[in-house]
Design brief:
The structure is a single chain. The chain has one domain. Helix 6 runs antiparallel to helix 7. It is globular, with a radius of gyration of 21 Å. 35% of the residues are buried. By secondary structure, it is mainly α. It contains 13 helices and no strands. Helix content is 72%, strand content 0%.
Length: 266
Amino acid sequence: MLWRSALPRPASFALAHQHPLTQWLLLILMAGSAGQLFKYFHIPAALFLGPMLVAIGFGVAGASVRLNKQVFRLGQGTVGVLVAHSMTVGVLLAAMQSWHVMVFATLLTVALSAVVGIAMARWGGIQSSTAAWGTSPGAASAMVAMAEDDGADSRVVATMQYVRVVCVVMVGALVSRLIGADAGGSEAHSTDALLHGMNLLNLGLSLLVIGVGVILGSRLPAGALLVPLLLGGALQLSGLLQITLPGCWRLPTARSAVTSACALIA
């Protein structure tokens, strides 16, 4: 049996041993394919869940690629401007009509999240700052960015945040079907805005908002996301700007999922 042990063992495929360019190509191809596959089967938030699950799988498999910090910040700024795009006078008026319900739901969510965070820090063996950021409700990308700035374990925070997001997406889709809500409203709104809002001036100004917002927010926790969001929202509500971005950029869920899940790659 000694001759068998002397034979060279076949090299196993490990992501960590692959060239970084190969890892990036695999990540992009598999993330895009997963998103389109989920979309084909009409899974809610397909372009979010597919790339996110693939990126998490790469992290668990030991991928060694890293996203450049400046590219990550520009991605955060793009997500912020895309969120600001949905801030209209009609949305604000609707929120004002139900402000008491929204305030109660927000306070209840924050309180329950704080209780869960304290329990995880005390009995779950998780660092207190990591537990606090991981259980904090809100934009998952912002929480991951602020956790990294605060010195918490961004991989654990990203895992906790995106497990929560997956649960919220699935429960939201289930509830919307139970109450008979129209699932195509957001797509119709996006298509309509793209048709009569797309021009080079607004596109250039929108890109300028991203760049200026990222620069101004460089010294603030999650400033690359929050400053473009606030700046773009204020300009759009004032009527000075109609936020316009190319159709391929109107995938904040997929972009956010891949960039934030890169924090899971050890």
